[in-house]
Amino acid sequence: MPESSFREVVRVVGVDLSGFNLLSYELTKIKGIGPTLAKIIPRITGIPENLRVGLLTDDQVRKIESTIKNLHSHVPNYLVNRNKDRETGLSLHLIGSDLKFQVDRDISFEKKIGTWRGLRHKLGLKVRGQRTRTTGRKGRVVGVRRRKTR
To answer: Over the chain, what HEC string results?
Structure first.
């Protein structure tokens, strides 16, 4: 293995990936790509998923980037994170800051229309049905008061 072909850091869609780890593991560091998609992306591009990221060529990196950007056209709709988007009606897969921005917009929309989830977000409480009797306490301390001794 020639030393000049190995890179310690590889930048893929704006995220620095360590060159020493496996491709399928490092792809999960990109926001919006989980373990399932991280195994599917190398299969789509024809790159071995157990290849070290530092050994990727520039052409392979470009293939991975183009696949990630057009992921909604390569995978079924149930694997994308914006299936039937409310505004466009299309199935999209967002990554990075686009995903964070869209999630923030969704939460603010729910607050605006006054859904139950929106109210829970607004009050800073748990949203997905978890128990709140014993957990999720933040702010003022709630405890047992001792009686004064005589």
So the answer is: CCHHHCCCEEEECCEEEECCCEHHHHHHHCCCCCHHHHHHHHHHHCCCCCCEHHHCCHHHHHHHHHHHHCHHHCCCHHHCCECCCCCCCCCECCCCHHHHHHHHHHHHHHHHHCCHHHHHHHHCCCCCCCCCCCCCCCCCCCCCCCCCCC
Residue owning tokens 């399932």: 36
Written as six digits, the tokens of 65 are 């980037």
pLDDT in tens, the chain (150 residues): 455 688 899 999 989 999 899 999 999 999 999 999 999 999 999 999 889 999 999 999 999 999 999 998 899 989 998 888 888 888 889 999 999 999 999 999 999 999 999 999 999 889 999 998 888 777 766 667 778 877
Task: Pinpoint the residues of the chain covered by CATH 1.10.8.50.
Answer: 3-78
| Record: fold of 3-78 | Helicase, Ruva Protein; domain 3 (1.10.8)
